[in-house]
Amino acid sequence: MLGRKEDTSKIDTIIGKGASVHGDIEVSKSIMIEGRVEGNIKAGGQVIMTKDAYVKGDVECDELVVDGTLEGKVIARSRAEIQKHGKVIGEIHCKLLVVEEGGFINGLTNMALDSSVKKSSEGKK
Fold it and tell me: For 105-119, what is each residue's pLDDT tens digit?
């Protein structure tokens, strides 16, 4: 992951491979998704999607890491990373955007320099 090591000690929720969730999810820390989620996700920390993960819904978090497929609007208060197998179809609002070679984005990207990430996305509902 571009030399960054994920802090998995702060992950308090895991949607395992083969699991399917229909509905909104809200966690105070971080969530790792290996399966399928159809619903919105709100996390106080990271949202990490592994290679086989699929999310259809909006995501709001501090940091997003996508190696699977995400269809929806993203508000990453600090950083969004699209890894080599990652696909994002929709909007990305963040301070820092990293896309590895092979990563795919189809949609709007909006990068803000300060805490206005959430504010900039609110006008585009």
Answer: 999 999 986 655 665
